[in-house]
Amino acid sequence: MDSALQEINKSNYSTAFYIQQSCHLNPWSESVFMDSLSKPYFAFQLIIDNQIVGYYVGLNVAGEATLMDLGVREKCRGKGFGQQLLDHFMQQCDQFNCEEVWLEVRESNQAAVTLYTKSAFEFVEVRKDYYPTKTGRENGLIMKATIKQ
Predict the structure, then answer these.
(1) Sequence-separated (6 or more) residues with CB below 8 Å from residue 56
(2) Which of 80, 92, 122, 140 can bridge 130 by disulfide, Cβ–Cβ 3.0-4.6 Å?
(3) 47, 66 in Cβ contact below 8 A?
């Protein structure tokens, strides 16, 4: 299995944008996605056997990073690709000399919560009724990992 991580830019973003649209009830608009492809944002896509299977978007400001979004194609989930993307994101944060990494995740997304917890993220706070759902709203979980102490 051939695997590569490729920086996402304005000429190669379309598949990652499609994955983003399929992963969320309220996805970003194309213009918001494209705005996240220039500094202080950074974005990469994971290519397995010549197919883009997932992506992430990060934000790096003043020694602190935020995982803005991470998504994997539905048919490719459960194969460790989310972990590969998260590991690469964390390596980028380390190269940027970030001290802390923050993220927010839907409380119902237990696969993601498990992934983040396994990767040294700790629960910080609940954002009550933050995310819209088909039937109302759900909580967001704010999580943090410390890279440099």
Answers:
(1) 43, 44, 67, 69, 70, 71, 85, 86, 88, 89
(2) 140
(3) no
Question: How many Å separate Cα 98 from the centre of its chain?
Answer: 16
Across the chain, which distance is largest between two alpha carbons, in Å?
A: 42
Mind listing the pLDDT tens digit for each residue in 91-125?
999 999 999 999 999 999 999 999 999 999 999 99
53 contact partners, CB below 8 Å, separation of at least 6 = 46, 47, 72, 73, 76, 81
Show the 3-state SS of the chain: CCEEEEECCCCCCHHHHHHHHHHCCCCCCHHHHHHCCCCCEEEEEEEECCEEEEEEEEEEECCEEEEEEEEECHHHCCCCHHHHHHHHHHHHHHHCCCCEEEEEEECCCHHHHHHHHHCCCEEEEEEEEEEECCCCEEEEEEEEEECCC
- Cα separation, 49 vs 45, in Å, equals 13
Per the CB < 8 A criterion, the answer to whether 88 and 56 are in contact is yes
